[in-house]
Amino acid sequence: MKPACLAALGVFFVPFTFAGQSILHWKPADGWRVRVERYFASRANDTQQKDQKRQVDKKRADSRQKLDTALSGTPGMPNDIALSLDPRLRIQMSVGELPTLDDILAALRAATGLEFVLGKNLQNHQPDMGRVLKHNVFAWEFMTSLAETDLVNGYWEKTDSGYRLTGKSRAFRLPTKQGGPHYALWLLFGVLLLLNAGVLLHRRMKTSPSCNIQR
């Protein structure tokens, strides 16, 4: 090939060679690289914040739904959860040692201002609450304890003025009537009178003339 042609080819390819090397060894400026990194980092932070906000909104919606379900009296929710979601029962109260059912119900009425009644089949329900000495305990915790003590399927039903305790009693006790021992004494006295009358009648029949004639 003629020298003139080689020189022409060299002039043609040399710029492309230097351009290719420049492209291969080119590095972006620091300012541009920082802006790109900040852009993608902000996009990642925005996505993470949106996910966190979505989770918080979902938890709030679930809590609101549970509260609405509990306050509406819809069956299916565990009784302790439903009671704990009622803000009227988040009142702290205290009871003394060895309380009765009536004592706890009276304390609940005084603390919350609500009405607490027993179902018709629980009028003689007398659970053994044991030795209880609790201070600053939420009202709904006492209610849960009552529903779980000596009751089968114990449940608090929401009423217009408060709550009603339902279930099947395992501590059903008939009330003792006042003056019961006096009735027993009168019964014993009546039996003794009948025995005495029988003995007197038997003796009279033995000593009567008709009995002597028959003999």
Can you put this structure into words, describing what you see?
- With 215 residues, this protein is α+β, with helices and mostly antiparallel strands.
- The protein has helices spanning 3-24, 30-71, 79-84, 101-112, 139-148, 180-207, 209-214; strands spanning 92-95, 115-118, 134-138, 151-158, 162-169.
- Among the domains are: 37-72; 79-169, 3-Layer(bab) Sandwich (Phage tail protein beta-alpha-beta fold), CATH 3.55.50.
- It contains seven helices and five strands.
- A hairpin with a 3-residue loop joins strand 4 and strand 5 (162-169).
- The radius of gyration is 46 Å and the shape is rod-shaped.
- The N and C termini lie far apart (178 Å).
Strand and helix map with partners:
Blueprint: H1 3-24, H2 30-71, H3 79-84, E1 92-95, H4 101-112, E2 115-118, E3 134-138, H5 139-148, E4 151-158, E5 162-169, H6 180-207, H7 209-214
Parallel strand pairs: 2-5
Antiparallel strand pairs: 1-3, 4-5
Helix pairs in contact: 4-5
Brief descriptors of the model:
single chain; 215 residues; alpha+beta; Phage tail protein beta-alpha-beta fold; 3-stranded mixed beta sheet; two-stranded antiparallel ribbon; 59% helix; 13% strand; rod-shaped
Produce a short descriptive summary.
The chain is of the alpha+beta class and 215 residues long.
Strand content: 5-15%
Give Rg in angstroms.
46 Å
Helix share bin: 55-70%
Uncertain regions: pLDDT < 50 for 5+ in a row? none
Largest sheet: 3 strands, mixed
